[in-house]
Write a structure and sequence with these properties.
This protein is of the alpha/beta class. The chain has 2 domains: 185 residues, Flavin prenyltransferase-like (Rossmann fold); 208 residues, CoaB-like (Rossmann fold, 3-Layer(aba) Sandwich), CATH 3.40.50. The protein is 36% helix and 23% strand. The chain has 14 helices and 19 strands. The strands form 5 sheets. Strands 12-11-8-13-16-17-18-19 form an 8-stranded mixed β-sheet, sandwiched between helices. Strands 2-1-3-4-5 form a 5-stranded parallel β-sheet, sandwiched between helices. A two-stranded antiparallel ribbon has the order 6-7. The chain binds flavin mononucleotide (FMN).
C-alpha cells in the first residue's frame, strides 16, 4: 500500500446484506485491516442471519451498526455517508441492489447509500437466475449509469448446490477494485467546484397531432455523459433534457423539455446563472406551422405538412451571454468539412464547436461511442477524437477548462 494512503488511514464503510456469502465479509474485514484501513461495518437486519456480528466487531474493532436510530447525536447517517473513502457493499443481495436502484432508504445501509458523496462499489452474490432476471439487469444498469461500480460475480458452485454465475467475486478482486476506487478518489480533481454548468441533451419532439410528432434519432447519451462528468468534477449541473430513455444522472438538477420552444424557454431561464453552457441537444430546426388538436384520420388523400423554422437557440443564447460565460455548441453533420464548421462556429458566436459525424457506423446517435472534431473560435484548436462517450465527455470538459484559462490569461494580458 502506498505511503500516502497509509498516512491518511482511509475509512472504508463495508455494507453487508442478506446473502449466504455474508460470512465472507469477515475475510474482507481482515484483509482491509491488514492494509491499515479503518473498517466500519453496516449490516442489514437480514445480513445478520449469515454474518457473525461479534466476530465482525472483533475483526473490525468497531461496532456493527444496523439501524439509523439510536446512533446518538454525534453520529448521523449523513456523516457516515460523507466520511468514508469508499462504500463497499459485499455481498450485495438482489434485494439490496433493487433498493439502491430505486433510491429506497428504509434502513441504515440504504440511507447511507442515498446520502453518499463517496464512491460506491458493490459485489453481487446470488443464484444465477436472480442475477439474470431482467429486474436485476435493469437495476444494475441504473446503478452503472450513476457511476456505482459493480464488481461482477464469478461462475462457480452456488449455495443451492447448482453452479452458474452468481458467486461473489473473489476477495482479492474485490480488494483491488476497492483500492483502485480509493486511489481515484484521492486523485480526483474537483476542477469544476463552485461552477454552474448548464447542459442540453437529447432530441426535441415537434407535435403534428396528439399522437404524431417530428423528432430525431438523438439518444441523449452524449449530453448525459457530459452531465455525469461535470458532476464528478464538482460542478452544479442543470440538465435540460429532451425525451430520452435514460435515467437522470445522480446529482443533476434535471429539467425536461419536449419541443424546441420549451427547450428555449428553459435554457433562457437557467442561462444567466451558468458559467458554462454545453448544447449537446439535437434541437429540431423545423416545427409544424399548425398542429392538430385531434388525431388526423386517414382520408385517402396525400397529407402535406407545413413546416416553419424554429428560432436559432444557440445563436440567441450566445448573443445574450455575459462576460465570463463559456459556450460549447454541438453540430451533427453527415460530413465534417472544417471550413464549413469554422463558419458555423463564427455564425453562432460560440467558443467551441464539437462536430460529430452521424453517418459513421458505430458512432453518433444512439451509440455508446462517438467521433468528435473539436474546433475553437480563433482556429487554434482542431482535434479529432474517437472513443466512448463517457471518455469523450471528460476530454471535452478538459478543453472547456483550458479555453477558460486561456480567455482569462488574454483578459489579464
Ligand atoms: C438461506 C438463504 C440464503 C440466501 N442467499 C441469498 C443470496 O445469496 N443472494 C440474494 O440476493 N438473496 C439471498 N437470499 C434472500 C435474501 O436474504 C432476501 O431477499 C432478503 O430480503 C435480502 O435482504 P437484504 O436487503 O438485507 O439483503 C437468501 C435467503 C436465504 C433464506
Amino acid at each position: 500500500m502506498d505511503d500516502n494512503l497509509k498516512q491518511k488511514k482511509r475509512i472504508i464503510l463495508l455494507g453487508v446484506t442478506g446473502s449466504i456469502a455474508a460470512h465472507r465479509a469477515l475475510d474482507l474485514i481482515r484483509l482491509l485491516k491488514t492494509e491499515n484501513y479503518d473498517v466500519k461495518v453496516v449490516a442489514t437486519e437480514n445480513a445478520l442471519h449469515f454474518l457473525p456480528k461479534e466476530t465482525a466487531e472483533v475483526f473490525s474493532g468497531n461496532t456493527v451498526e444496523t439501524s439509523a436510530y439510536g446512533l446518538g447525536p454525534q453520529v448521523s447517517h449523513v456523516e457516515w455517508a460523507q466520511e468514508a473513502s469508499a462504500i463497499l457493499i459485499a455481498p450485495a443481495s438482489a434485494d439490496f441492489i433493487a433498493k439502491m436502484a430505486l433510491g429506497l432508504a428504509d434502513d441504515l445501509l440504504s440511507t447511507i447509500c442515498l446520502a453518499a458523496s463517496s464512491r460506491i462499489l458493490f459485489a453481487p452474490a446470488m443464484e444465477e437466475r436472480m442475477y439474470d432476471h431482467p429486474a436485476t439487469k435493469t437495476h444494475l444498469s441504473i446503478l452503472k449509469s450513476w457511476n456505482i461500480r459493480e464488481i461482477p460475480p464469478e461462475a462457480g458452485s452456488l449455495a443451492s448446490g447448482r453452479s452458474g454465475v452468481g458467486r461473489m467475486a473473489g476477495i482479492d478482486s474485490i480488494f483491488s477494485a476497492l483500492q483502485e476506487a480509493v486511489r481515484q478518489d484521492t486523485h480526483e480533481i474537483k476542477d469544476l467546484l463552485g461552477k454552474t454548468v448548464l447542459i442540453s441533451a437529447g432530441p426535441t419532439y415537434e407535435p403534428i397531432d396528439p399522437v404524431r410528432f417530428i423528432g430525431n434519432r438523438s439518444s441523449g447519451k452524449m449530453g448525459y455523459a457530459l452531465a455525469e462528468s461535470a458532476i464528478r468534477r464538482g460542478a452544479n449541473v442543470t440538465l435540460i433534457s429532451g425525451p430520452v430513455a435514460l435515467p437522470p444522472p445522480h446529482g443533476a438538477n434535471i429539467v425536461y423539455a419536449e419541443t424546441a420552444r420549451e427547450m428555449q424557454e428553459k435554457l433562457f431561464h437557467h442561462f444567466p446563472s451558468a458559467d458554462i453552457l454545453i448544447m449537446a441537444a439535437a434541437i429540431s430546426d423545423y416545427t409544424t406551422k399548425n398542429s392538430f388538436s385531434q388525431k388526423k384520420k386517414k382520408d385517402g388523400k396525400d397529407w402535406l405538412l407545413h413546416l416553419e423554422e424554429n428560432p436559432d437557440i444557440l445563436f440567441s443564447l450566445a448573443k445574450a451571454r455575459r462576460p465570463g460565460q463559456t459556450i460549447m455548441g454541438f453540430a451533427a453533420e453527415t460530413a465534417l468539412v472544417k471550413k464549413e464548421l469554422q463558419d458555423k462556429l463564427l455564425r453562432k458566436g460560440v467558443d467551441l464547436l464539437a462536430a460529430n459525424n452521424i453517418s459513421e457506423t458505430g458512432s453518433g446517435f444512439g451509440s455508446d461511442n462517438n467521433t468528435i472534431l473539436l474546433i475553437d473560435q480563433d482556429g487554434l484548436l482542431s482535434e479529432e477524437k474517437s472513443g466512448a462517450k463517457k471518455d469523450l465527455a471528460d476530454w471535452l470538459i478538459n478543453k472547456i477548462l483550458l479555453h477558460r484559462t486561456r480567455a482569462l490569461q488574454n483578459r489579464n494580458d
